[in-house]
Amino acid sequence: MTVDSSITGKSFLKEIDFSQSELEFLISYAEKLKHHVSDEEQLDILKGKHFALLFEKQSTRTRSAFTVAASKLGAHTEYLSKNDIQLGSKESVEDTAKVLGSMFDGIAFRGYAQKTVEELGEYASVPVWNALTNQWHPTQMLADFLTIKETLGTYKGKNITFIGDGDNNMANSLLVTSVILGANINIVAPDSLQPSEKVMEIVSGLQQNSNSKVNITSSIEDGIAGSDVIYTDVWCSMGEEADFDRKYQLLKDYQVNENLISSINNPDILFLHCLPAIHDTNTDVGKMAYEKYGTVGLEVTDDVFHASYSKVFEQAENRMHSIKALLAATFT
């Protein structure tokens, strides 16, 4: 597969940074690296490259995916947490970007403010990849649409339904990426947790060149009708713990459970979740939810999470394969 030269040297700060053809290439390239290129062949693709993982937020999948992906391609990574450097405290983002850009070949940033990763991209002089901010989660999208393609054969024309907090980074990213790639997207959320006007302005602009249908609704029955993919996320992201009770009261009727899945009446339904998921009482948050509200699981029940139509662990593995494609394409 010939690498799309338009991606070479390019930062990936948000989904709209890449065109439809560029995103489609990355998804196809990830599929190729996963199934058709041996580990030995991949090892020299990024030999001698060094990447900084600049993480303000904790991470399981994203950190692991970048670390293993880089290693499989012959590159090295250095993990820099908020306690390791002085980003924003004693050193500005601009100064940090210039320093790291002079030493590393690329920077992955996972943190809070989109402004921070945008500044890193502006001043680093090397490619910068958004590994999650409060507004966007673009590398997750590569894995998600790869998983949809692998499971359903295509994502084009499929009906993707996100249920839960429609004003978070996952809902934002699914909205924008679905419209770019030609999937239909439903956001099912309470009125007070629906996508912002700013995000909807971006979506409206993208729709002018897309056949995607967009449905934003508080009605679960209306939103899930005809769904091919049901997607949910935790109700409280990192940094929102103080808002837990309010979010629970707003979202308790939006749980993905077997009754909801059965009502869709689609034998080929696919369930996705970017993880971590609160689906039982085997975590501190799960125990707290049970003790406080008497519920086992929050955004999804355990039977759905472990059902045959749930591909959450394949989706998690695909984080690594899709990030391999992103890293390789950036430097090829």
From TrEMBL:
<dbReference type="InterPro" id="IPR002292">
    <property type="entry name" value="Orn/put_carbamltrans"/>
</dbReference>
<keyword id="KW-0056">Arginine metabolism</keyword>
<keyword id="KW-0808">Transferase</keyword>
<comment type="function">
    <text>Reversibly catalyzes the transfer of the carbamoyl group from carbamoyl phosphate (CP) to the N(epsilon) atom of ornithine (ORN) to produce L-citrulline.</text>
</comment>
<protein>
    <recommendedName>
        <fullName>Ornithine carbamoyltransferase</fullName>
        <ecNumber>2.1.3.3</ecNumber>
    </recommendedName>
</protein>
<feature type="binding site">
    <location>
        <position position="233"/>
    </location>
    <ligand>
        <name>L-ornithine</name>
    </ligand>
</feature>
<feature type="binding site">
    <location>
        <position position="319"/>
    </location>
    <ligand>
        <name>carbamoyl phosphate</name>
    </ligand>
</feature>
<dbReference type="InterPro" id="IPR006130">
    <property type="entry name" value="Asp/Orn_carbamoylTrfase"/>
</dbReference>
<dbReference type="InterPro" id="IPR024904">
    <property type="entry name" value="OTCase_ArgI"/>
</dbReference>
<feature type="binding site">
    <location>
        <begin position="137"/>
        <end position="140"/>
    </location>
    <ligand>
        <name>carbamoyl phosphate</name>
    </ligand>
</feature>
<feature type="binding site">
    <location>
        <position position="110"/>
    </location>
    <ligand>
        <name>carbamoyl phosphate</name>
    </ligand>
</feature>
<feature type="domain" description="Aspartate/ornithine carbamoyltransferase carbamoyl-P binding">
    <location>
        <begin position="10"/>
        <end position="150"/>
    </location>
</feature>
<dbReference type="InterPro" id="IPR036901">
    <property type="entry name" value="Asp/Orn_carbamoylTrfase_sf"/>
</dbReference>
<dbReference type="Pfam" id="PF02729">
    <property type="entry name" value="OTCace_N"/>
</dbReference>
<feature type="binding site">
    <location>
        <begin position="59"/>
        <end position="62"/>
    </location>
    <ligand>
        <name>carbamoyl phosphate</name>
    </ligand>
</feature>
<feature type="binding site">
    <location>
        <begin position="237"/>
        <end position="238"/>
    </location>
    <ligand>
        <name>L-ornithine</name>
    </ligand>
</feature>
<keyword id="KW-0963">Cytoplasm</keyword>
<dbReference type="InterPro" id="IPR006131">
    <property type="entry name" value="Asp_carbamoyltransf_Asp/Orn-bd"/>
</dbReference>
<comment type="pathway">
    <text>Amino-acid degradation; L-arginine degradation via ADI pathway; carbamoyl phosphate from L-arginine: step 2/2.</text>
</comment>
<feature type="binding site">
    <location>
        <position position="169"/>
    </location>
    <ligand>
        <name>L-ornithine</name>
    </ligand>
</feature>
<dbReference type="Pfam" id="PF00185">
    <property type="entry name" value="OTCace"/>
</dbReference>
<dbReference type="GO" id="GO:0004585">
    <property type="term" value="F:ornithine carbamoyltransferase activity"/>
</dbReference>
<dbReference type="InterPro" id="IPR006132">
    <property type="entry name" value="Asp/Orn_carbamoyltranf_P-bd"/>
</dbReference>
<feature type="domain" description="Aspartate/ornithine carbamoyltransferase Asp/Orn-binding">
    <location>
        <begin position="156"/>
        <end position="329"/>
    </location>
</feature>
<comment type="similarity">
    <text>Belongs to the aspartate/ornithine carbamoyltransferase superfamily. OTCase family.</text>
</comment>
<feature type="binding site">
    <location>
        <begin position="274"/>
        <end position="275"/>
    </location>
    <ligand>
        <name>carbamoyl phosphate</name>
    </ligand>
</feature>
<feature type="binding site">
    <location>
        <position position="86"/>
    </location>
    <ligand>
        <name>carbamoyl phosphate</name>
    </ligand>
</feature>
